[in-house]
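Dear colleagues,

As part of the handover before I leave the project, I'm documenting each prediction I ran so the next person doesn't have to rerun anything. This entry is a single chain, and its sequence is reproduced below.
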Amino acid sequence: MILLPMTVLLIAGVVVYWLGGKAAAGTLPINYFAGIRTARTMKSKAAFEAGNRAAARAAQFVGVMMCVEAIIMGLAWSFRGSPDRPNVIWGTVVMMGIIVILVGVLVAIAKAQQAAHEVLEDEPPDDL
């Protein structure tokens, strides 16, 4: 029952970590599918690159935390007690993991916004 969500979260965490690495290296091209895509970061290629480069470490942290959360979910599920009586510990672990991941995402967005803003002050927007 818990195997599918754990697997999806684990794979998503690996993908987010990998994308963070591409952003840090400056090899993540501007696109509409991956990276921090806010109105400000999408105004130019330079803003997208600067924003995603600034958010890269936070994004990689989120990817790692997603993988850790997937593993902890499995461990907490296996020690939950009776299958018809979920343990409060399992729910608490899941919620704490979600909160940590959400905070990481918000930090990444804030860093991307700030870096994109600094770039946009210096240049006019591209026509994408």
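The two ends are 44 Å apart (CA to CA). The mean pLDDT is 86.

All the best with the project,
I.
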